[in-house]
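Reopening this ticket.

The earlier resolution said the output was attached, but the attachment link was broken on my side. Pasting everything inline this time so it's all in one place.
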Amino acid sequence: MTTAKFITFLLLGIGLSFDSFAVSVSCGLMKREIKFKQATLVAASLAFFQAGFPVIGWLIGEALKNLIASVDHWIAFGLLALIGGKMIVEGIKEDGTLKNFDPFKISVLIGLSIATSIDALVVGLSFGFLEIPILFPVLVIGSVTFIAAMLGMLFGKNISAKRSHQSLIIGGIILIAIGLKILAEHLFMQAT
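Inline output:
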């Protein structure tokens, strides 16, 4: 392993972890009383999917690369918009319904993890096509994502907000913005 390859994989891990960091900030905004065990669960889920999707992509190979690349941005946008929209709706309700939305609920956590990891699937496909060994990049991507997610939740829970329903609205807007960013990047790339 050369230094240049290590730096490349590290930068790739950092780039792929931005969405996970933003999702973690949203989780910290919504659950200010987050415990270390909960934060570890969220970070581990995000890191697991972020590291696992390149392996899946690598195994799928070049045959399906174009098919997945043509819809990955729509899948990510749809998942993030759905979860973000639900957060905004819950945040608008002022009658104690905030307790109904739980970012630590397994189905929500898995949805967030998948939505933020779809780009990593395409990266794995390109690794498979280029015959790049997958183990080291996956370890770097997973480690960087775990650290970024833990820092994101710490940052999110320390942002002051007057009321928790306002935090839900902010978190929902952040998730929808991430989805729009993914969509815009891919649509812009297709146009050029």
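Reporter confirms the inline version is readable. The mean pLDDT is 80. The chain has one domain: 3-191.
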